Structures are given as C-alpha cells and as structure tokens.
Amino acid sequence: TVHEAFHIASTGRPGPVLIDITKDVLQGQAHYAPVGEIHLPGYKVVTDGHAGQIRRAAQMMWEAKRPLVYGGGVSLAPNEQGTPQPGISGSTGDLTNFAPVGSSNVVLLGELPVGASVETEQQFVVNVSTVPGAYPLKVSLVYTAPGGTRAVDDQLITLLVYALPQLEVSFYRDPGMFYNGMMTALPIQITNLSRKTTVLGNMTVSSENADLQNNTSLVGTLDPGGYFTWDVMYTPFGEGPTKIHVSINYTDDFNQLRVYETALEIEVQPPMEIPQEPLPGEGEMPVEPEQPVGFWAKIWNVIKGFLGIGTGSSTEQPVEVPMEEGSKNVP
Questions:
Q1: pLDDT tens-place string over residues 276-317
Q2: CA nearest neighbour of 104 among 82, 117, 116, 120
Q3: 81 three-state secondary structure
Q4: Which of 73, 205, 235, 238 could form a disulfide with 209 if both were Cys (CB 3.0 to 4.6 A apart)?
Q5: Where are the beta strands (DSSP E) in the chain?
C-alpha cells in the first residue's frame, strides 16, 4: 500500500496521497520487501496531451473575460460574493506590516482583452514596529471564469523592507564668508537621528570647480543622537551659489553596499580686495644724501663755531633784556 501511494504521488500529476494506517500497524515491526514494477488497476498515467481537450481549453480561454494563465497549474476558489470588500479581509492579504496609503487595497482593472496587459500601482506604508527583512504579500486576482463563475486566484509577491540611515549633515559652526580663491575650512557634522546605532563607512566631500584637501574620512559607529565632526579645507575657483556634495558609504540590512548622498549649499563671494600700503619714502620729496665731513672740514667748523661765524639761523629773533628804572636802552 505504501509503495502504491508513493507511485501515485510521484507519477502523472504529482500531489499528496492519503494513507490510512491503523495504530497497531504503526506501532508494530515488519520486514522491508522491495517491490519492483507496480500495476494499479484503473490507474493509467497519460503523458500525451489530448487534442480535443486542448482545443476545448483554448476555446474556454478565448471566451473568458480577464483570464489568467498560471504555469504549472492553479487552483480556483469560487467566489460567490463577487468583488472583495476593501480592508484587510478584502484581498485576504496580511496587512499587519503594510497598510495602503491614499486608496483602498482593492483595485479595479476592468476588462482585459486577449493578449493585452495592464499596470497598476499601490502605495503602502510600513509599520514602525516592522523589522528589516523579506515579507510575503498576498495578492488576490478576482475574475469571471467560463460559465459566469467568479473565481479568485491568490498570488504571492515578496517585499523587502530596509532600515535606511537617518542622518543630518550640516555645519557645526558658522563657517563665515567664502571668497573666490581663498582657502576656508568646512566644519561638517554628521548626526545620527535614528533610534538605533548606525555603522557608516568612508565619507567623501566633493565640489565642482574647487580644490578640497582632507576630504575623505572614516565615520565609524554612531550611537542614537551621536555625531561626527570633520574639517575639510575648501578653496573655490568660482563665484555664486555652490553645492558641497557629501557621500557616505554603508551596508544595508541585506549586506549590500549603498551610498547616502546629500548636499550643502553655500554662497561664494568675489575675491577679497586687500588695500596696498605705500612703501616707506613713497610720495615724499627726495632728500639728497649727506656728504661725509673730512678732518680739516671738522677743524674749520670748530674755528667758525668759536668765532661765531656761520653758526645759528639766518634770522635771529631779538632778545628782550629787562631794564632797571631810569636806565636807557641802547641798541
């Protein structure tokens, strides 16, 4: 009996086979005897397709409205209630982790001609308690089978849930003014805004038409609310609005390498004008250099000074001497 059951289950159209065995037989012991070829009266496996049945199936699909061909076989569940109602019980899908946004979870596709296709979209929001991973989502297709019977075909799709890093990239202090051609420090700060620890890789800062130094660094692990600061030397070669691009490498929940990208906007001013101070002596009257005084010239100057010749200024101011009463002032 067991050999016959395995033969039926593995030949023809494979499927489950029920065997009813009594309790005493299950608890007993027996010797295994291999069985060769099995012959079951009335059981004949048909391997060639029946031409008439194939034509009949093709005619049924031609006459059906909104047909669906499922390769490998499909089980049709009659639906006497017609179109499912919106909500969790509408499509018999599990909406514990996902919920439709903006519309119902029931979408009317309308009549679909033979060979045609239709596309539809459904927005979902992920529950905050859902952990990252792969989740199956059940999709039920309701259509009219030949003979007017409403049928439901259930399909499964897989949705991947990622936990993207929630980061804030900003300046941890006022960087001041940026001038064309002048080197300035970019005080960049990365803050982890999520409720869990985030592991980040290398961070790279770039900008067009500019020279950057010390623009690559490893961030590492950031606790919730933690931050990472970094100073990048930035020299712009243009004026006007400029974007500072920041890219951070990290590994997602499926061990795939991803890049977090954002940009900071700054304003670059024209080159700063530095006033030029005049050189010492610039703009003054030229002064003739003093000639060195020889030995005899020094002797002659001493004699003239002793005799009072050629000394003092050319214009002498008269000196008033107080006179006693009754005396006469003689020039």
A1: 666 665 555 666 666 666 667 777 777 777 676 655 544 444
A2: 120
A3: coil
A4: 238
A5: 77-78, 98-100, 124-126, 133-144, 150-161, 167-171, 178-179, 184-192, 198-206, 210-213, 216-222, 227-236, 240-251, 257-269
> In the chain, which residues have pLDDT < 70?
1, 13, 66-95, 275-295, 306, 308-331
The residues that bridge with 262 in the sheet, in sequence order, are: 246
- Give SS3 for 291: coil
Find, among 190, 179, 204, 203, the residue nearest to 266 by Cα. 179
For 64-74, the pLDDT digits (tens) are 776 666 554 44
Please name the residue that has the structure tokens 């490893």. Answer: 218
Token pair of 8 as six digits = 């039926």
pTM over 0.90: no
Nearest to 203 by CA among 238, 240, 228, 233: 228
User: What is the chain's length?
Assistant: 331
Contact call for residues 300 and 288 (beta carbons, < 8 A): no
What is the C-alpha separation between 182 and 236, in angstroms, rounded? 7
CA 288 to chain centre: 75
